[in-house]
Design goal:
homodimer; about 325 residues; alpha/beta; 10 helices; 14 strands; about 20% strand; globular
């Protein structure tokens, strides 16, 4: 058996990762999912190949976590549990820190101290690049990090710990800087799903709608979650321990441009209005990545165009 | 009254800070000390001017901490509690992280969320500079950080959080990068006190002694704790919120050189022997600081020469 322990199993990314594993048509894959929340029952109904089980467990309960990891004895730990909203991290910086950095540290420390032979995927975020200048885009993994939100600080702390464990304790850890991922099932507290949900609701009443937004001039690199989970799998198989890999599309889009694309797909007119509550204390103007390191190590390239991502989210939400 | 809340009150630095406050000859100073450990009773016997009280409290018990801070209503919080041994942080990285970063975050978050009007001194470490090249020495606050131990990572995480709270939440926080401080009462698990303790014990038997050491070629900037606490006081009064200040002597000494000075003071011959247990997985070759930013803001300069520090430690330990 090839055994995968996946944290954050009730989340958006985990569901896609599990589906990806199932699509490999390999009867020898076993998954143990961990989540602090109850798993919705429909989550695993369609799995055809892999063996799947899950438990409810808070990753801060280190004694229970130790038992879970030791009992399952994974080949891979894919650490997807996270407090992943930049916006919410401004409201509760302490919770954001603990539920990014400390939960990761608990896992790394258990693997190290119990001498468990497995590879960990430490999922990080492009937010740690912070405010960069235009000539640094597309961002390579080597540029200076400059985190600007509680979320970004928590992720950079996690990344520094990952590198320390990999470099000095020789814990097997591959590190990612994952850019904004989008796709079906993402919570509508995230920007693209929020835009689409608002648009679909307003569309029922009129073909001219008004969206409430934050700063829509910011440029981000949106990558489809299905491309992201494929990159995670490839990094588990081919990544180098202690190395950091951007996972991104390589393309920048302003939120304003994405709103235009949504309008075009839905055949509606969208006006926007700034909601002061959605303006953050500090926001990075442009984050666009360079995935050449990931490509050269794993042959990965993104396959799903932004338009298809948007259409699939619309289908899912309709 | 001018009210100081001091964490880590049972520690080496806190005792000197309290003595410094007492030496100001001001009857209007009130101190509340917090420590996870019982305070030794002789600690405050000699205080003549300030009003002093202390409580036993673990800084991870956030509900109790909130009550303590709100009840005392400090003007200043001097956060000296820390897991401050680089060597021990390699043995228990998780404990080191929680007892540097998370305990600080608890304080900052209480002050922010309860809207307490006070200034926090966030004490950090020169270890966050990590391995630097010779031409970067003496280190200014602006050079790229490169932490290489669990302790250093924890301190850099704390510093990033301090800056975020100061810059975006407008919490009043002055940040230090304190270089290796030495002086009477430092625990003998720290390098200089360890050398002196071993030397004094061996000296009882012979004038030719053998010291067990780690790598004694490393160069550090040792600054006397009494100069450090004076800098802390001046930063509380004159520092700028969100700014980072080196606190150092500006002089580099190899551990080998310090051993020579100890030998000279004690009039003994010291041979050294590498103890493999004292070699760390990674160690910075040279850390020497530049204190011109602190000086220009507060007029601080170090006053106590290394030789006097060593003599005072020897007197204290004899």
């Amino acid at each position: 058996m090839e055994k995968y322990l996946i944290t954050g199993i009730s989340g958006f990314v985990a569901s896609h990762f599990v589906e990806y594993l199932d699509s490999l048509n390999d009867k020898n894959i076993e998954v143990l999912g961990i989540s602090a929340h109850k798993l919705s029952s429909n989550f695993t109904n369609n799995l055809k190949n892999i063996r799947f089980n899950s438990i409810e467990l808070n990753l801060m309960e280190i004694d229970k976590l130790k038992i879970a990891i030791s009992s399952f004895s994974p080949d891979y730990i894919i650490h997807l549990a996270a407090f992943s909203s930049v916006a919410s991290s401004w409201l509760d910086p302490s919770d954001a820190f603990v539920n990014n950095t400390n939960i990761f540290l608990n896992i790394a420390e258990i693997v190290r101290s119990q001498n468990i032979k497995c590879r960990i995927l430490s999922v990080g975020s492009s937010e740690i690049y912070g405010n960069v200048s235009a000539d640094e885009v597309p961002l390579k993994e080597t540029i200076k990090t400059n985190p600007k939100s509680p979320y970004a600080i928590a992720r950079l702390s996690q990344e520094m710990l990952s590198k320390c464990y990999a470099d000095y304790y020789k814990t097997d850890i591959v590190i990612t800087r994952s850019f904004n991922h989008i796709g079906p099932r993402q919570k509508d507290s995230f920007v693209i799903s929020s835009f689409i949900k608002q648009s679909l609701e307003a569309q029922k009443l009129s073909n001219k709608i008004k969206l409430k937004t934050g700063d829509i001039s910011i440029i981000r690199d949106f990558v489809d979650v299905r491309d992201v989970v494929r990159a995670y799998y490839l990094l588990l198989k081919k990544g180098i321990s202690g190395e950091i890999y951007n996972i991104c599309s390589g393309n920048g889009n302003s939120l304003a441009n994405i709103i235009k694309q949504i309008a075009k797909i839905l055949k509606i007119e969208i006006e926007t209005e700034i909601d002061p509550l959605r303006i953050r204390p500090s926001d990075n103007k442009i984050i666009v990545g360079d995935y050449s390191k990931l490509k050269s190590q794993t042959d990965w390239t993104p396959k799903i165009e932004l338009e298809k991502s948007l259409k699939d989210i619309i289908d899912y939400m309709s």
